[in-house]
Amino acid sequence: MARRFVSIWFPQLTTDWFAIRQPALSCSPFVLSAPSHGRMLITSANVAAQAQGIYTGMPVADARAIVPQLAVLDDIPDLPGKLLHRLAEWCIRFTPFVAADPPDGLFFDATGCAHLWGGEAGYLAEITRRLNKRGYAVQAAMAGTAGAAWAIARYGKKSFISDGIMDTAALLPLPPQSLRLETETIERLHKLGLSQIRDFITMPPAAMRRRFGQHFIKRLYQALGKEEEPLLPVLPVEPYQERLPALEPIVTAAGIEIALQRLLGVLCRRLLQEGKGLRIARFKCFCADGKTSVIETGTHQASCSAAHLFKLFESKLNNVEPGLGIELFILEALQTEDILPIQEKLWKTDSGLNDTRLSELLDRLEGKIGSGHIHRYLPDEHYWPERSIKLAASPLEKPGTAWRNDKPRPLHLLHQPEPVEVTAPIPDYPPMLFRYKGVLHKIIKADGPERIEQEWWMAEGQHRDYYAVEDEEGRRYWLFRSGHYTAEKLYQWFLHGFFA
User: Fold this and answer.
1) Which CATH class is domain 243-338?
2) 118-137 burial string, b = 16+ CB within 10 Å, else e?
């Protein structure tokens, strides 16, 4: 099969990226600038700015003299390289071999790929359309060599396809700079009147090497296919996955456990070497009859302990149905986190929430009673009590604010306050009686009020006046009145919690 290469050129790579992030920029001239020897120079200009005579390398002061309304943005160091790497990973959908071509291009080894898009014309058109849709202007070409595709994409016809045999004919009218030569060599060729490749392609190689150097011959031969050009593909990040095929179908529980232990050992060693721990894992068993059994487990804290993870899976292995036998086992780490070493004290061994044994205990408990039953709460920055706590994402999450302990708070706080009927002697006094769920409570002691205002950034409801009260049976409650006493009786009383 003949080799086929695609070269993608992004004429406005960095300015396109800024325009994607700030759409208003696409309608006006703007440039990117960076300091150089005590002055600001333009590193890139969009099409609208170039149309008004602004070019790369021009001082920003001169550009503003030409276009007073010119927008000037700070360039980001190493941005082109990062963009090309991201675009190369995204383009793996078109071919498994994508290489970055700094500072503004990509190479595809498209051998055997074009038929999936109905041919080379449809393949190249789809690549261009998808990149244009993402906001990038591109020029693309396909040829039998990477060098020829590069030359045609930048100096030839737009979206041109050479069949490989005609690569030389497509290169003949192009200028010498299409061969990716050094500036000094290009200037020398132009001084000699060699302004097109056809002017020197038939010269003896020895004469060209003697006058223009070995690099000139190398680039020419790479474009013509006489010399191989090495390309370094961008490889996607490999998933944390381990596979174990079985020589014979496994049907016993002991065999499944051995396979899981082996996979956990390999995966945990890999994670440990990379300084990571597992949070969510999936174990797949592919049976000979075509069925697949899948079990998952998770941890509160990143872990690379194979023994602990096996205990979490062990209680779920009964759900694996081997059927006619399992032929392939796959263990995947769906979510991982960096593992940071915990600073230990010299004489004391207790580490509180950082203790790995606590996290492992929580993992085992959830494995037995199910997830969502064990919670840890942290204080939240809200006034109203029902909003002043939040669920912690993990045992190691740090609180953003301190627990409030200057005022009494009930041990049992209702998720939402419940309305009650109250009898009070005079306004702003504690209640004498209140009825809750049909039961009348006579209050003998009360403390309050504690006013909690509404949260101005939410502006919901009225202020609250809280009272800690005790009935004649010694039970203590947390009541509050919402709003002021008014003739229209717009206020209302609620029960919000129970003290110990």
Assistant:
1) alpha beta
2) eebeebbebbbeebeeeebb
